[in-house]
Hints:
Elements (H helix, E strand, L loop, with lengths): L2 H25 L13 E3 L2 E3 L12
Antiparallel strand pairs: 1-2
Amino acid sequence: MNKAKLKSYAPKARREFIQAVTDRAHFYGLSENTSEIQTVEEKGDVALIPLLHKAIDTLP
């Protein structure tokens, strides 16, 4: 097994995964900046987080 290709690919894949998760969190109104924390409405077992500046039809 050629581990050199895996070792060169893994860091790039990790950075891309972290960016994808960060982008999805921002889509749902979550961010590292605590001043941007959105209110969460709880209804039973469901937590509703308001979407910021995004249309529902952009969801995957």
